[in-house]
Amino acid sequence: MVHLEHFSGHPLDYITEFHISAKIHIDICPHCYSRQRLHLHGVYHRHVIWYEDVFSIPVQRHYCIHCGKTVSILPSFCHPGFQLALPFLLELLWAFFNRIPLTDALAHQHRRFIFKRFLLCMNRLIEYFRICHDPLLVFPDFWHKKAIKLLEMVYSVGKPHIFAKRFYDHFKKGFMAH
Fold first, then answer.
1. Residue 54 and residue 5: Cα distance in Å, rounded?
2. CA pair distance 83, 21, nearest whole angstrom
3. How far is CA 147 from CA 25, 57, 76, in A?
4. According to the lineage, what is the superkingdom (predicted)?
């Protein structure tokens, strides 16, 4: 399981912060709800694609002695299940739906996958905004305009990582998880 936590907004800052600051502790297991603090269970490295750069960032793992499951603390600029950094992912979606020409930052096939996945997850995004913001929200019927309105609403929440963390805390999955 993943636990999103806000650190700095860039992988280089996160790497520096990771090595300098105190480690984060998890007091309640999200699997079995044990109230005994989870044990630090090491670190693994994860790749993050940040526009034209690729970073290998350290991620803490914690272990529950009661249920034997692990929890990873992922920085909020990452999206669970995707190597693309959240700001880059949202920028790609925004460019696609607003018909802005994209540079060759990603292969065409990879971009198509991202756009199709977003379209498949739009109903969950609509549900989130109706539950957490306004139950009377009205969305356009046409999928293209609906996608643009959803992206505008994501940006209206504040910084993308704030939205991503709130969505993850509510549904226990990323907004692009299928």
1. 21
2. 24
3. 37, 31, 22
4. Bacteria
Ramachandran category for residue 7: left, alpha or beta (phi over 0 → left; psi -120 to 50 → alpha): beta
Residue 32 neighbours by CB under 8 Å, 6+ apart: 64, 66, 67, 69
Residue 53: Cβ within 10 Å count: 11
CA separation for the pair 25, 44 (Å, rounded): 16
Yes or no: say if 163 and 11 are a contact pair by the CB < 8 Å rule. Answer: no
Q: How do residues 42-83 score in pLDDT, each as one tens digit?
A: 999 999 998 888 999 999 999 999 999 999 999 888 888 888
Q: Collapsing DSSP states into helix, strand and coil, what is residue 27?
A: coil
Find out whether 59 and 44 touch, Cβ atoms under 8 Å: yes
Question: Residue 75: phi, psi to the nearest 5?
Answer: -65, 145
Amino acid identity at 67: C
Band of residue 120 on the pLDDT scale cut at 50, 70, 90: very high
Where do the domains of the chain lie? 2-75, 86-171
